[in-house]
Amino acid sequence: xxxRTGQSPDPGQSPDPGGEQDVDTTNTVFTSLLEDSAxxxxxxxxxxxxSTLMDGxxxxxxxxxxxxxxxxxSRVVGRMRFTxxxxxxxxxxxxxxxxxxxxxxxxxxxxxxxxxAASGRRMPVLVTxxxxxxxxxxPLLIRTTVFDxxxxxAYETELLRGRQAAEEARRxAEEARRxAExxxxxxxxxxxxxxxSLLPSQLPEIPGLEAGSYYHTASPDLLGGDFYDLFPLGSxxxxxxxxxxxxxxxxxxAVTSLARYxxxxxxxxxxxxxxxxxxxxxxxxxxxxxxxxxxxxAVFGTLEPHDGHVEVxxxxxxxxxxxxxxxxxxxxxxxxxxxxxxxVLPRATFTAARTRLLPGDTxxxxxDGLTEARIGPDRRxxxxxxxxxxxxxxxxxxxxxxxxxxxxLLASFGDGLDDDTALLALGVPAPPHTRVSDELT
Length: 441
Fold this sequence. Notes:
- By secondary structure, the chain is an alpha+beta fold.
- It contains twelve helices and 17 strands.
- The strands form four sheets. It has a five-stranded antiparallel beta sheet with strand order 2-1-5-4-3, with helices on both faces.
- The N and C termini lie far apart (102 Å).
């Protein structure tokens, strides 16, 4: 069913007399509302009106503005100037800006000022003034409207307060960020110093032997748990070790320090590699078994230089097997299967092995950060076989050369290397003519 508007009445239907009466009543009400006199509209306007002579003397003012000021008309008209209604700051602004601009342009609109009531209360207002001129263009008087801007001032004040609060919050956040960054730098520096204290500052010079080392820190914000050392035992014998503590941070650093000094002390008492690892196992288990378990993997060994070769005796506790790069270009692991983690059980079994290093041979010890690095688009593990092939491809130029090559390899991993990595290489220098031949090859 469709409804239509504006449809003409049925010619046969008589008009509703009640409807005509309602229309007449409505018209009467509107007429009465519109019968405001001009004087009443002026006096009761929702804004202030005033007219002044050209010197600013008030000639006329409406009731609204008088009520805001709290003044009687008799005290204002002919007795006060417009500037007398303003605060001190308003007077200065009127004299230096408002009045000159009004004289030059003949009209100034929406200028924010404050008027001063008889009670001393300040009231923010927006002032608009226009100069009335004669037919000849001579200025006669100034007509001014004054609008109450209290709500606007409150809104602007709130906005300003919010902006200041936001700027203060931003300043404090920036200051906190700078402080946090400074603290982070200091912490990194402290960690770096502490990390270096857990490693030898430099490896000793050993007659007939060459040694090289490298340490990669995965994050400057965390202390690593990798450690190594090379030190004399006396009677032309040397001891070495390399290990990896479970975890990172200060707790791991404490275990690293304990492991390092325990192995050095144990080696001076009994240099047998299995005995040294057994002592470390006992110390770690007794120290940490009652709380959060702390353990490590480690390789400990001794070196006995002889004429033309070095005898190596090594033992491993759950650590990756050492790799030997031979002078003939081959590379194989010195397997030590069955060695248990150090510090997990009160009694642990460790596996020993022996080998002989000839001129040009290099023994490489490393932590699992090297072989567990992620490479390629599929993020696969680098692995033991890749390391063996890399070592075999290097020229027989000694431990330091191999360490340099491995440092470049670690750098090539980029973010795929997410763990600390320690390297320690020991070897017998090749004869000079062998090195020249390898370089030419």
